[in-house]
TrEMBL record:
Keyword Protein transport: no
One Pfam family from the record: Aminotran_1_2
Protein's UniProt name: Aminotransferase
Keyword Transmembrane helix: no
InterPro entries noted in UniProt: Aminotransferase_I/II_large (IPR004839), PyrdxlP-dep_Trfase (IPR015424), PyrdxlP-dep_Trfase_major (IPR015421), PyrdxlP-dep_Trfase_small (IPR015422)
Any GO molecular function: transaminase activity
Every Aminotransferase class I/classII large domain range: 54-357
Organism: Kitasatospora indigofera
Alphabetical UniProt keywords: Aminotransferase, Transferase
Origin: domain of life: Bacteria
Lineage, opening ranks: Bacteria, Bacillati, Actinomycetota, Actinomycetes, Kitasatosporales
């Protein structure tokens, strides 16, 4: 296995995720129970789950699951999909297949740590930072300037984790064309697709726009089903898809059979699940607006364009790292300070924290947060 640094987010979560009383930094939408998911199944899938043989499954993924995934794409079919054990395995193997010594990659920041550290373990990487002073805008000229003759991958994430930023469709299309013109694979992390505040702003899947692009998705985030551990890459480059399959032979080989059937049920019912989760975020945002309005002297707040995480700015003199540490230790309220998202590639803000807006009933956590802040005044 390629040597990699500690995964800061998971190390932090291993200490606090299941011990903090109020998990206010969750990156996934509210989940559901097994019985709740099965209630959405059609007769065929319910019978398939109840009479499932617990043997090995296909490396590419259950054919029915891949068909359900492909239904969400305009130009890609089931044969363009390969499933993985979550998005992390997919990202890790894709970068190892696409990159090697002598290659170069471009990665947008801030981003999920593995999107930066995995490529950096394989080749030279240039970072292009979203601009916090311009509402996390992406400068396509900076991406263009970062590209070299040996650039093989440009890696992006929209709606973005942790900022909630969403590009315009024209801008995203221009990015896809730039990569195609240079013969570069666009690796598009789309795990929050479907949770846009304005559904009209939903971006096309990158794999629908280009045969070279890879679209990464997972049941964990927008669907709120991380316990299934089912992710996938959609790419119309069949030779590349074959290389991904061979790489998977060295990791999980195949996915969990029960999880694949449950993911198939979720994907077929994705319209219902996503509508429920968008409504949950919409109902939650006024609570967060009111909270940050009360403490406007301490925070700069902006609701996310999409997804269920936001990246407010902390204005206190003690600094965001000490602030978040004291908050979880004294009030049991968990946030992720910006140190978790620091980049080795670009300057990144040191006064931000990630907060989650997609879980049910955040009032208790916000009230505990508010009490702690009032006591400090």
């Amino acid at each position: 296995m390629t040597r990699l640094p500690d995964f800061r987010l998971e190390t932090y979560f291993s200490r606090w995720e299941f011990t903090a009383r109020h998990h206010l930094t969750a990156s996934d939408a509210q989940t559901m129970t097994l019985s709740g998911l099965l209630a959405l199944a059609d007769d065929e899938d319910r019978e398939a789950f109840e009479n499932l043989s617990l043997g090995y499954t296909e490396t590419f993924g259950d054919p029915g699951l891949r068909e359900a995934i492909a239904a969400g794409y305009r130009n890609a079919g089931a044969d363009d999909v390969i499933c993985f054990a979550g998005a992390e395995e997919a990202l890790y193997l894709a970068m190892n297949v696409l990159l090697g010594p002598g290659d170069h990659a471009v990665v947008l920041t801030p981003n999920y740590q593995a999107a930066e550290t995995v490529p950096m373990a394989l080749c030279e990487v240039t970072g292009v930072a979203l601009d916090p002073a311009r509402d996390w805008a992406l400068d396509l000229d900076q991406v263009r300037a970062a590209i070299r003759p040996n650039t093989r991958v440009v890696s992006v994430n929209f709606p973005n984790n942790p900022t909630g930023k969403l590009l315009g469709a024209d801008e995203f299309g221009a990015l896809v064309r730039l990569c195609d013109e240079r013969g570069i694979h666009l690796f598009s992390d789309e795990v929050y697709r479907g949770l846009e505040r304005d559904p009209a702003r939903t971006l096309p899947n990158a794999a629908d726009l280009s045969e070279r692009a890879l679209s990464l998705n997972v049941t964990s985030k927008s669907l709120g089903l991380p316990g299934l551990r089912i992710g996938w890459i959609t790419c119309r480059d069949r030779e590349l898809r074959s290389r991904l399959e061979r790489a998977k032979h060295y990791t999980t080989i195949c996915n969990s059979a029960p999880s694949e059937v449950l993911a198939r049920i979720a994907l077929k019912a994705s319209g219902t699940i996503l509508a429920r989760n968008r409504a949950l975020v919409a109902a939650n945002l006024p609570l967060f607006d009111a909270f940050f309005a009360e403490f406007a002297d301490l925070f700069e707040w902006r609701a996310p364009d999409g997804g269920c995480v936001a990246y407010p700015r902390y204005l206190g003199e003690d600094g965001v790292e000490e602030f978040c540490a004291r908050l979880v230790e004294e009030a049991g309220v968990l946030l992720l300070p910006s140190g978790i998202y620091r980049s080795e590639l670009t300057p990144t803000p040191t006064d931000r924290f990630r907060i989650g807006v997609g879980r049910a009933d955040p009032q208790d956590g916000l009230e505990a947060f508010a009490r702690w802040l009032r006591e400090r005044r």
